[in-house]
Amino acid sequence: MKKLAAVLVTIALAACGPTEPDASPRVVSVVPEGEGVVPDAPGIAVRFSEPVEPSGVEDGRFVALATDADAKSVATAAGSATGIGPGAAIVPARVALAADGTSAAVAPEAPLQPLATYAVVVGTGIRSASGRAVLDPTGRKRAFATTFRTGAMPDRVPPAARWIAPPHGPVPTNLREIRIGFSEPVSGSLKVNGVAGRARAIAPDVLALALDGTLPAGSLSPAVDDLRDAGGNRPPPLPAIAVASCRDDRAPVVDPASVRVLAGDTTIALAAEASEMARLGLEVAVERLGEGCGSLPDVPGSLVAWGEFAPCPGHDPCGSPALASPRCPVTVTAAGLCPGRRVKVRLLVEDLAGNAAPPGPWLVATTGSPAPRLVVTEVLADATSPQAGGEYVEVANVGSGDADLTGWKLAKRSASGAVSRCTLEPKGGPLPAGGHGLVVGGGWDGRYPLPPGVPLFQCGATSLAGGLADDRAPAMALESPTGGVVSGFGWSAPGLRCTGRSVERIHPGGEDATANLACAQAAPGTPGACNGNTPAADCPRRPY
Question: Which domains, from first to last, does the chain contain?
Answer without folding.
Answer: 27-150 (2.60.40.3710), 161-243 (2.60.40), 256-366 (2.60.40.10), 374-538 (2.60.40.1260)
